[in-house]
Amino acid sequence: MLSSATSIDRVLALNFHLNHGNSKGVSLLSGCIIECFSADPLPGKGLVPFEPNSDCDNNRHEHGFRRALATDKDSKALRLREQSRWQGGVIFGDIKWARGLLFLCGCWLPVEAKETVVERWALKVVATLPHEPDAFTQGLLLHDGYLYESTGLYGRSSLRKVDPESGEVVQRLALDPGYFGEGLERVGNRLIQLTWKEGLALVYDLDTLTLVQAHQYGGEGWGLCFDGESLWMSDGSATLYRRDPVDFSHQFSVTVMQQDWPRDRLNDLACVGDYIYANIWKEQRIVRIDKHNGRVDADIDASPLLALSGRPADPEAVLNGIAHDPQSNEFYLTGKHWPRMFRVRFVPTAR
Questions:
Q1: Are 203 and 211 in contact (CB under 8 A)?
Q2: Does 240 have pLDDT greater than 60?
Q3: How confident is the model at residue 115 (pLDDT cuts 50, 70, 90)?
Q4: What residue spans of the chain are helical by DSSP H?
Q5: Are 125 and 342 spatial neighbours (Cβ–Cβ below 8 Å)?
Q6: Exposed / middle / buried, residue 262 (Cβ in 10 Å: 0-12, 13-18, 19+)
Q7: How far apart are CA 13 and CA 8, in angstroms?
């Protein structure tokens, strides 16, 4: 029950914000199921008791709050049908009637769930390895004892097969000068390489690095990883896109949130079980994301690698490139134009 004017004013302010200053409309408040009962609709407004939408999806992966549409309105009931995947609803007609509606309804607003606790992790360097300094690393993966690497920059982008111990490039394919290489992942005997602004996912034969296919997509391509069922793709925003591994069609999206703020600039990715590890562009950190709800639950400080990296004095020579070794549960990390690569373990720190 809303019993204080302060609580009511907060709800009114939220509704006003969601409707961008428009005093009329219907808004959706996340996680709130309201059952209101009033003898009569408000005069001239048709605001009446309603039932919350029963076919809501509990998969809460969209941005914090979204607008809903009224789909059935008469003198006895008004039903809200959500456009987003959030559950519950709040009805507001004209703002001047909202306060009275809240008092009349006897509505219950549940307390928001506690925000996800973000653990602070460090890393332990297990080995320091050589890395070709001409590689503007954008994507990295480990398979069958070799690293496969996608490098960027127009006119210099490539796909490489690398011996991780020596850093030797044992196979190299130069991309067309008009393509800027980005994220890289393996699905079966195929490698899939994103391009930055060209909207193409290039598909290669794993053994020969021969281009066999290409898929189109909208927007930019940044990072890519495969969880055994679906591909996950980043585009520099706070959104991760789940895609079909065969035809690259979009399945759905999840918004990444860190302590209730969108976590954007997601770059290279590594899928590990229920989690996605992501480099943050131009930050010396890696975050661990629960792929089911988009919540960041661990923030890994990778700044100690900067002093060890031997990187050039170039603002673009940032940390990027993450590959998981399932045998040892270690990670390979490097950066753009870094002459060194590191095999590391992620270690939770004491709170």
A1: yes
A2: yes
A3: low
A4: 5-18, 95-105, 304-309
A5: yes
A6: middle
A7: 9
Question: How close are the terminal C-alpha atoms of the chain, in Å?
Answer: 37
Q: How many CA atoms lie within 13 A of 32 on its CB side?
A: 21
Distance CA 131, CA 169 (A): 9
> CB-hemisphere CA count at 13 Å for 99?
9
Q: Which residues face 213 on adjacent strands?
A: 203
Element (H, E) at 270: strand 266-272
CA–CA separation, 229 vs 226, rounded Å? 7
Dihedral (C-alpha) 12, 15, 21, 22: value to the nearest 10 degrees? -110
pTM, 2 dp:
0.69
Alpha-carbon span 286 to 272, nearest angstrom: 14
φ and ψ at residue 243, rounded to 5 degrees: -130, 155
- Tell me: the pLDDT tens digits for 290-306? 999 999 999 999 999 99
User: Minimum mean pLDDT among 19-28, 157-166, 205-214, 265-274: which range?
Assistant: 19-28
Considering only CA atoms, which of 26, 137, 27 is closest in space to residue 73? Answer: 26
Length of the chain counted residue by residue: 351
pLDDT given for residue 114 in this prediction: 55
**Position 333: which residue type?**
L
* DSSP labels, 299-332: EEE-THHHHHH---S-TT--EEEEEEETTTTEEE
Pairing of strands 78-81, 69-73: antiparallel
Contact present, 50 and 82 (Cβ < 8 Å): no
Pick the closest to residue 243 from 210, 197, 291 (CA basis): 291
Which residues neighbour 211 within 8 Å (Cβ) at sequence distance 6 or greater? 202, 203, 204
Closest CA to 175 of 154, 158, 151: 158
Measured from the Cβ of residue 17, the count of other Cβ atoms closer than 10 Å reads 11
Query: SS3 of 232, please?
Result: strand
Alpha-carbon gap, residue 332 to 321, rounded angstroms: 8
Check: CB of residue 162 under 8 Å from CB of residue 193: no
